[in-house]
Amino acid sequence: MFKTMESTPENETKAQRTRALILETALGLFREQGFERTTMRVIARQAGVSLGNAYYYFPSKEHLVQAFYGRTHAEHLEACAPVLSEEKRLGRRLLGVMRAKLATIDPYHRIAGDLFRSAADPESPLNPFGPESARVRAEAVSLFERTLDGSDVRLPKDLRDELPTILWFWQMGVLLFWIHDRSPRRRRTDLLLERTTVLVVRLIGLMSLGVMRPVRGSLLRLVRDLREEPAS
Amino acid sequence: MFKTMESTPENETKAQRTRALILETALGLFREQGFERTTMRVIARQAGVSLGNAYYYFPSKEHLVQAFYGRTHAEHLEACAPVLSEEKRLGRRLLGVMRAKLATIDPYHRIAGDLFRSAADPESPLNPFGPESARVRAEAVSLFERTLDGSDVRLPKDLRDELPTILWFWQMGVLLFWIHDRSPRRRRTDLLLERTTVLVVRLIGLMSLGVMRPVRGSLLRLVRDLREEPAS
DNA sequence: GTCTATAACCGGATAGAC
DNA sequence: GTCTATCCGGTTATAGAC
User: Fold this and answer.
1) What value does the mean pLDDT of chain B take?
2) What gap in Å lies between CA A61 and CA B26, rounded to an integer?
């Protein structure tokens, strides 16, 4: 932070390099050995630093996971870009975005259970509903905003405002299913995804109808109220 | 099991009493001190047994949690009985059952996060979707069956068959929210509950209509398909 | 074969010296 | 910023008592 950097020829400080090295080592080991089985000691040893040093950069094993989230989200954005720019039909766009998500995280399916386990704790910084995740969450929601806005479907304003959040919940549900999915090549998740996408699009259509005003009203008010006060 | 019990004046064996003692001690400590902060060593000491002995009866801390589940489910059934026998309106019945659930587990709200954390792991025997939980799950679903059947609402058969499972999912969602709810006296959960109950009843009404046949069809088929093959 | 006790082991996390 | 030495608690091994 307040370092007087007199002589760092590279465009990275030593600290940054050490940090990156530890993170790379950790992610590699997580993917190969699993999360629980990868101990902090092994990460440190393989990265060539001491255990204490690893904890200097990442205050807990969970903090390594946060870094992981950031990375896969960036990859997801990249993987989404084509379908978002080329496709107009809402169903296709949603399916494309969700499939890209699943494809991005698929290499980490083994450890998804462990990660989710940490994330499930309300006190955990990894808790997707918690304040520490606000930023990632907002980015994920805004991705659905773009998915909606770039489509050929016109929505009533009230629905348009809350729908991205609802779709994010849908994504969380699909991910929850994916985590528990033991079928070969995660076929069941894909089934769930295809079927629910159709339903979602159909429900959006239904909810846009005049008759649905009252139901839609209560639903949207509910989502808004619950979203406003972000727990605690 | 195959014990030749020649002389046990009490209707409990010593083993049963020891087991019960450890469980009681553990649950009490969990409630007072929290789950993580209650160590197996303290449980054992306070119960007046050795650490090894505690592990003899409960192979892991998670097994204590399973016992806890069984207990609260039984309490829930008891707490539901009045509303189920006295009330005919579906909304009231659902609300009563759900409120009874929340009331039953409320003393354990502090530790709910930790418990949920264990339960979130797909490999964990506590995972509510896993095979080890099949029995509890079936009981919970059948409670919703009774909630529906005793009401004054008549449902199309296809809906009636799948709805209990769907309501169980709803319950899981509410519980998830409850776990993360930090508002005083869990007001936000109650808000969610009241509002979603109205929605659920309304949606059931809507879904029973002729126009909804196609949507209902896909929805129910989806639930059925995903339910059939119980992961793995 | 049922039960109890003691002494480790292992890995996440911390303290404090340099 | 980096290290070594420890702590702490879940879990296991094992020895033996009833």
Assistant:
1) 88
2) 28
